[in-house]
Amino acid sequence: MLDRAARAHKGRIVAALAARFRDLDMAEEAFAEACARAVTAWAAQQPRDPAAWLYRVADRVALDMLRRSAIRAGAALPPPEPEPTAEELLMADATLIPDERLRLIFVCCHPAIQPEARAALTLKLVCGLSTQEIARAFLTSETTLAQRLVRAKRKIADTGISFEVPGPDAWPERLDAVLSTIEIAYAKAHEDGGGHGQHAGYAAEMLQVTATLVTLLPHDPDLLALAATVRFAEARRPARVDADGMMVPLDRQDPARWDARLIAEARPLLAAALMRDARSPRALTAMIHAEWCARPSLGDPPPWPAILTLYDALLAVRDDPVTRLNRSVALAEVRGPAVALDEIDALACPGLADFLPYHAVRAALLARLGLRDAARDAYDVALRLGPNMAERRWLGAQRDEL
Description:
It is built from 19 helices and no strands. It has 402 residues and is mainly alpha-helical.
């Protein structure tokens, strides 16, 4: 119960504590101490409202920390939180942004925080991703990522950034960081084909979050494109794992098993996005997913030429290692594995060393070229990077075939 409650409510509680005490490190430390105390307290009697219990205890812990802090000696402690007035209840956060997770994401994507740190801080605070997971998502080292988080927290403490739900006028300046956060949070859920991992719940949550966002900002092309992408990708989940729990690559999935309802939801969202901006990276990404979801049946050839054309267009507006890596898969099918291997071996990005898809793609290309020893080594590296169970079974099977 504690583990489930901590994962579900950490973001809300830490954000509330940070708003009250203007110190994110203190908020996280107080929440951790509350969880530690809950181990003993809940063993004797479980609370009726776990979130309220954790917040009350964490609030007392934070006050105790202030009392003990030498640098705060003599300073007035924050007053007790007053009971909300009727007017405050009518103007509650939910009237601005009705989805709790989305409210927290908007709160944490504050424009005063450096752009490269906003999504990272939000992913850690609100979504509970580890520093290692976030660093891998951004193709950077844990040390670099940790330094960004430290600087962001220091900025919050030094400038007294207000952790409050922004009004509609402030949404546009936060939206890109919000969308980046949603993209990575969903990616963590999507990489787990079986849907049993720690972050699997984000899949359903991000469907809901993007649906809420579309009602709030129905004309933003990037948002519409991302909402479409999440639906196209999630529609394929029923076919992503076989009866033995092994991952099924996209070109081997049976379209008959895909979720037609989600695909139908995605298409008008993409159409609306393309009417407003057909060349944005998020629109082109959604078009790639749409091309796959237009495949009639497993008997029809995979749309590799069209996929490569779309990746070429995407590369023209967003040239980064992940785009080039994904493009290399289509490139191998259209122009051959040797050309694709040359492309990814030319990538100069230290972060790829800890990026599992890089080693998995490279291993497959090496195997197709008959370079069996090098392919086995690449599969071994991928397996050491901790894939989920369905992907582990697939990678292990491919290695064993060598």
